[in-house]
Protein: DNA-binding HxlR family transcriptional regulator
Organism: Breznakia pachnodae
Amino acid sequence: MSDNKYSNLDVQSFPFRYTLSIIGGKWKMLILYIISDHQPIRYNELQRKIGKITYKTLSVQLKELEADGLVTRVEYPQIPPKVEYSLSDKGQSLLPVLDAMCNWGHDHIPENYETSFIEKKTEDETVTY
């Protein structure tokens, strides 16, 4: 890795820090993948496909992804309200990165991964690792 063109840079200013700030966390990569497979997708359908995610958490994550320019939100003026989410061009450009991460995980996942989850209680919810 010392041959890397970024090896002399300060880690705090390293470009992957920006990338991780955009896609880091428990939900963002999953949200991006689901949107990419089902775009445009409505909020409730997205929430159903993700599974155990609260309304508030999904709302916050979508707002952050939209603010970062990865997701576009289209609101239709009708009753009941209709909102659809899709990936922006910037969001589409992240798919090869997410695919590479997924492929790496596929190649290196331990055989007992499904049975080796650890539950950690937090103040707000149970988080599964």
Residues 89-108 form the longest helix (20 residues). Residues 7 and 42 are 42 Å apart (CA to CA). The domain at 12-111 is CATH 1.10.10.10 (Arc Repressor Mutant, subunit A).
